[in-house]
């Protein structure tokens, strides 16, 4: 077996976005993290999730017959008594999968995971190349579509990138529309963008476009 520096590196528990727990029939738990010490995580969290699952899931269920389920958790930025909070975002068994806490709303991830379970690992990774989140058709899409999409994109992309996309589309096509179509509040002025750290998640799963939308 060839040496793989990534798999051989220690887990970076402090800065990892995802944590997985594989449960064995003997009652043991195999815990792993999406980030290793000395390696950067990609800023695209969808790509990180899909490529990680394409690497892990076939190994757990085809090479280890004692694993009966795998849970995947995403770290949230809030802490309680110094401890990170997590949200369970996926549950895998040998025959099927379940996406949770916002990930089930992402058609790209659903299609990629279905391809993975159909036995096409390469197709699972190749599907990622066909999706482009940052497109908008004002003839077919409404402001509510834009708002919902950007709220969901905070699950996968850096907050600053999503904010720039949101405000650019709003300025061009929906300048007079209140920011929050549910709260019907006046639109706040966009704040200056500051690039977040690449290895830490900067927005909770329930986050909106920016802090101003939560006021």
Helix content: 25-40%
Order of helices and strands: HEEHEEEHHHH
Q: Report the major sheet.
A: 5 strands, antiparallel
Helical segment count: 6
| Alpha carbon gap, first and last residue | 55 Å
Shape: globular
The total beta strand count reads: 5
Strand order of the largest sheet: 2-1-3-4-5
Count of distinct structural domains: 2
* Poorly predicted spans: 183-215
- Provide the structure class: alpha+beta
Determine the strand fraction and express it as a percent band: 15-25%
The averaged pLDDT comes out at: 81
Computed Rg: 19 Å
Concise summary:
It contains 6 helices and 5 strands; from the N terminus they run αββαβββαααα.
What are the main properties of this structure?
215 residues; 2 domains; five-stranded antiparallel β-sheet; globular; disordered C terminus
Describe this entry's structure for a reader.
The chain has 215 residues and is an alpha+beta fold. The protein folds into 2 domains: 83 residues, no CATH class; 70 residues, no CATH class. Helix content is 31%, strand content 18%. The chain contains 6 helices and 5 strands; from the N terminus they run H-E-E-H-E-E-E-H-H-H-H. It has a 5-stranded antiparallel β-sheet, covered by helices on one side. Strand 3 and strand 4 form a beta hairpin. Helix 2 packs antiparallel against helix 4, helix 3 runs antiparallel to helix 4 and helix 5 runs antiparallel to helix 6. The radius of gyration is 19 Å and the shape is globular. The termini are far apart. The C terminus is likely disordered.
